[in-house]
Specification:
The structure is a single chain. By secondary structure, the protein is α/β, with parallel strands linked by helices. The protein contains ten helices and 15 strands. The strands form two sheets. A nine-stranded mixed β-sheet has the order 14-13-12-11-7-10-9-8-15. Strands 3-2-1-4-5-6 form a six-stranded parallel β-sheet, sandwiched between helices. Helix 1 crosses helix 8. The structure holds nicotinamide-adenine-dinucleotide. Nicotinamide-adenine-dinucleotide binds next to helix 1 and helix 4.
């Protein structure tokens, strides 16, 4: 049984905590928030001790696994410190997205996990669905064939005004993760963005991408459309076929090339996904299962290794020196924010 603690008791931290309580592989042992009223409320609700300081909780409870559900600026500025504290305390960590707002500290987080032999997962839950797994199988079985293009789209309503890049950085870890899940690493992107009436941030964008495989991609993302209707769609096409994944768990349709018949998976009424919360349950259960089964801990991703050897000519975003923060080169900065290009890793 994994002893689990949660750092950050906002809506998402509470959701993680609820899921650990339900998980047969985990026991929730404590919760922490720097806002005492949030920690106290979660602790009272869940029947575990409250802490107001992450290090104190780690010292007192020595958990096996920690969820970091802090947020901060652009939803990512507060993830680094508690993640490093938890890894240094010997805990496996499931960190909310985005892993961090900047590349250099994110790399430090991964490097520390690797050095300690611990699992560091990021809660990119949108592809943790039976429909997405089926679509992945179609890719692996060659039913899409040589990939040609990916069209990804996601739109929700989020009126928060943070940095100009808030929507791009906070929403799109999910969409880019889904694109990479099906089509592999992306080597170059180009973005146009716009502001909805009354907004000060780049609240809607379109990104063109080139995958390492040679396939091309497109991503449309928006914080300007209220929920209610479907909100996410992924289409992947190759020479052998094309699939469309609607709302990530609702429906997956395979259109084999040259065949008038299609194959449709529809979320079942009995035993199917009830709502978006089930993607969190699946992702967190997958993490506790993997940690319990002793999956190999952090290792360098192919994209990281590739980025380290990529030609500098192709970059518009300068690679930071080991601990410095990444800054756009003057050429890029001049073009920002209406249009910018950078290599994604
Ligand atoms: N995976 C998803 O689908 C999904 C959906 C929504 C939000 N999120 C992510 O979840 C995270 C949290 O979202 P939220 O809406 O609950 O945010 P929130 O701001 O309401 O809650 C975060 C809490 O963390 C606390 N905190 C910050 N630093 C801390 C520290 N060092 N130690 C202890 N507590 C600390 C804050 O006081 C706050 O109460 C964000 O990173 C967001 O991007 C993920």
């Amino acid at each position: 049984m994994l002893r689990v603690a949660v750092i950050g008791c906002g809506p998402i931290g509470n959701r993680h905590a609820d899921i650990y309580v339900m998980d047969e592989r985990s026991e929730l042992v404590g919760v922490c928030d720097i806002l005492p009223e949030r920690a106290d409320a979660a602790a009272a609700r869940l029947g575990v001790p409250a802490f107001y300081d992450a290090q104190e909780m780690l010292d007192a409870l020595a958990p096996d696994l920690v969820s970091v559900a802090t947020g901060g600026v652009e939803y990512g500025s507060d993830h680094y410190e508690p993640t490093m504290q938890a890894l240094n305390a010997g805990c496996h960590v499931l960190c909310e997205k985005p892993i961090c707002n900047e590349i250099a500290p994110a790399e430090e987080m991964v490097a520390l996990a690797r050095e300690k032999g611990l699992c560091l997962g990021v809660d990119l839950n949108h592809r943790f669905t039976p429909a997405a797994r089926l679509a992945k199988r179609w890719v692996e079985e060659g039913r899409i064939g040589h990939q040609l293009f990916v069209n990804m789209a996601m739109w929700i309503g989020n009126p928060q005004e943070s940095s100009p890049w808030f929507m791009i950085k906070a929403l799109n870890p999910h969409t880019v993760d889904v694109m990479r899940y099906f089509a592999g690493d992306i080597e170059a992107v180009h973005v146009f963005a716009t502001k909805a009436p009354g907004r000060r941030i780049w609240s809607t964008m379109q990104m063109n991408a080139r995958f390492v495989s040679g396939a091309v991609g497109n991503l449309t993302a928006s914080y300007d459309i209220e929920r209610g209707h479907p909100m996410e769609r992924c289409e992947v096409a190759g020479v052998a076929g094309r699939f469309v994944l609607e709302d990530m768990w609702r429906e997956a349709t395979l259109y084999p090339a040259g065949d008038p018949q299609k194959i449709v998976y529809t979320n079942p009424v009995f035993g199917g996904y009830r709502d978006f919360v089930d993607t969190f349950i699946d992702r967190i259960h997958t993490f506790t299962r993997q940690v319990s089964e002793g999956v190999p801990a952090c290792r360098p991703s192919r994209s990281t290794a590739r980025a380290r050897t990529a030609s500098p000519r192709r970059r518009c975003w300068r690679r930071p020196s080991s601990r410095s923060r990444p800054r756009p080169s003057p050429t890029c900065a001049e073009r920002l924010p209406t249009s910018y290009c950078r290599c994604v890793r």
